[in-house]
Design brief:
Number of strands: 17
Strand content: 15-25%
Helix content: 40-55%
Length: 576
């Protein structure tokens, strides 16, 4: 063995130049039981403390440092949670899991992320105490899951439908931290574009908020040539009672469309041609006839690319009552008959976009097409595809509203934009599943059903502890809303519990009111999803018994130390 030892060393030295000798894996540390849960709870606590200050009408702002641009100021719970990352990996694990609750709630409901975060903290904190006292974590988990199911059923039975723009305005106002202007603008936008319409929130360029609504079909393609302009002042081409020709491919020869142009000239009817492209000879023919013959015509490129363009053209065909000229259907451009043209009452074409109003398509066909698109939205898993389908649905069924958020500085616009987005998501959720009393009252009232659950004989003591944990957590939103407004949280919770019905605490004015009558309301979807997501992650954390984390190795600070062999640099000492 002593003779062979040098051979092993020699073999080790004979490493090919292009292979780096494998280094050992990073060291990991294992923590168990109460020690592991205490570190997780530390991360959950610190994240929840940062997020909870934003809750309620008198919640405060949080300022976020950004790697680029100015600092961001926000009251949006999920935006705060996303920024939190701890150096200690053990503490960071807990924070990351709560961050996932906020993200999931935001993705599903679009609002209620702060409530979901504090509910997670409350359930996990009480769960840790119970497990440390020697109770069975699995039984506690069962008790929590049963309780959440009961509370959600009760919340759904309490919900009432949203009717009228007044209710929509109230939901939006509460979600935007009591700013009535936000609520009024969103209610107006929803009123004008219907619930299928698209509402987009953008940064404005002025001090004031602006609402821009487009009813009918609008797409982002303008005229191919400025020669088609009919109003030189506005640089737009505007027609009334126009015929519409839809072509899937390119129009290259003028001869192909001569028959249709002749028909429109005899009928003195304007013609809009929407095609993939109109090439030189055909385009020249259209322009010459427009300028010399006084023919009312305008050529526009079809929106989108590939399959999306084909789908958009089919939507237009149904909206205008036209037949799409496509080689897939065996239709050629030179064989087009006047009956294949669609019609619109009014159209406006600018350099950048086209609006078609009051298409001549049958209402039944449009409704059927909308149902097809809704089915496709439910079936798709791609976010990009879903967005494109929703845009198509809005163009067919409703319209498009753009809210431009104003403010005196970039930071203010960003903060107000967050509130607009939250309010928009809350109103959509309210229209979808209905509303319940706000201010944390709905959870307090729904948790009353847990008293019956505690009386069931098939529940053991550990399960009952799980039920009590959920009952206590349901008081947390009401407690913190009051506390952030400068009132004693425990006293307010007691008052609300004694009042019963839809009575609750108006933290903005500091008085007890009927929440539904006062317009302090929450979408039931937001409350439900917040509780379900919070209990899901909190129970997983409570049943955690071991934690494995990578040990952080301190990297040497002097990164230039290994450069001593470079001439004139003296190990980095010559650099100034």
């Amino acid at each position: 063995a002593a003779l062979r030892a040098p051979a092993v060393g020699a073999a080790a030295r004979r490493v090919p130049l292009n292979v780096t000798p494998a280094r050992g894996m990073a060291s990991k540390e294992i923590k168990f039981g109460n020690e592991a849960r205490a570190l997780l709870l530390q991360g959950v606590d610190r994240l929840a403390e940062a997020v909870k200050v934003t809750l309620g009408p008198k919640g405060r702002n949080v300022i976020l440092d950004q790697t680029y641009g100015p600092p961001r100021i926000t009251k949006d719970g999920v935006s705060v949670a996303k920024e939190i990352e701890f150096k200690d990996r053990s503490i960071n694990l807990g924070a990351q899991l709560v961050r996932s609750v906020a993200n999931k709630t935001n993705d599903q409901a679009g609002d209620g992320t702060t409530s979901a975060t504090i509910l997670t903290r409350s359930i996990f904190r009480e769960g840790c105490k119970a497990v440390a006292a020697g109770m069975n974590p699995t039984d506690i988990r069962r008790g929590i899951e049963m309780s959440v199911k009961e509370v959600v059923t009760e919340l759904n039975s309490m919900a009432s439908k949203v009717e009228g723009s007044e209710r929509i305005m109230q939901v939006a106002t509460i979600s935007a931290n009591g700013e009535k202007e936000v609520g009024r603008m969103l209610a107006d936008a929803m009123d004008r574009v219907s619930k299928d319409g698209v509402i987009t929130i953008q940064d404005g360029k002025t001090m004031h908020d602006e609402l821009d609504c487009v009813e009918g079909m609008k797409f982002d393609r303008g005229y191919i040539s400025p020669y088609f302009v009919t109003d030189t002042k506005t640089q737009k081409c505007e027609f009334e009672d126009a015929a519409v020709l839809l072509v899937e491919g390119k129009i290259s020869a003028f001869q192909q469309v001569f028959g249709i142009l002749d028909f429109c000239a005899k009928q003195t009817k304007p013609l809009i041609v929407i095609a993939e492209d109109v090439e030189s000879e055909a385009l020249a023919g259209f322009i010459v006839n427009k300028l010399r013959g006084g023919l009312k015509v305008c050529c526009v490129k079809a929106p989108g690319f590939g399959d999306n363009r084909k789908a958009n053209l089919q939507d237009m065909a149904i909206l205008t009552g036209a037949q799409l000229i496509s080689e897939d259907l065996g239709l050629k451009l030179d064989k087009v008959e006047p009956s294949m043209l669609g019609s619109v009452k009014k159209c406006s074409v600018s350099k950048d976009d086209t609006i078609l109003l009051d298409g001549g398509g049958s209402k039944d066909a449009i409704v059927e097409r909308c149902d097809q698109i809704r089915t496709a939205i439910e079936a798709t898993t791609s976010d990009y595809e879903k967005e494109k389908l929703q845009e198509r649905l809005a163009k067919l069924a409703g319209g498009v509203a753009v809210i431009k958020v104003g403010g005196s500085s970039e930071v203010e616009v960003g903060e107000r934009k967050d509130r607009f987005v939250d309010a928009l998501n809350a109103t959509r959720a309210a229209v979808e599943e209905g509303i319940v009393p706000g201010g944390g009252v709905a959870l307090l009232r729904a948790s009353a059903v847990l008293d019956k659950l505690l009386e069931q004989k098939d529940l053991n003591e550990d399960m009952k502890v799980g039920v009590k944990i959920v009952k206590k957590a349901c008081q947390e939103p009401c407690f913190l809303i009051a506390q952030n407004a400068g009132f004693e949280g425990a006293v307010v919770v007691q008052k609300v519990l004694q009042a019963g019905g839809t009575m609750g605490f108006n933290a903005y004015e500091g008085v007890m009111v009927d929440m539904m009558a006062a317009g302090i309301i929450d979408p039931v979807k937001v409350v439900r999803i917040g509780l379900q997501d919070a209990s899901s992650v909190a129970t997983m954390l409570t049943t955690t018994e071991a934690m494995i984390v990578q040990i952080q190795e301190d990297k040497p600070s002097d990164s230039m130390g290994g450069m001593g062999g470079m001439g004139g640099m003296g190990g980095g000492g010559g650099m100034f």
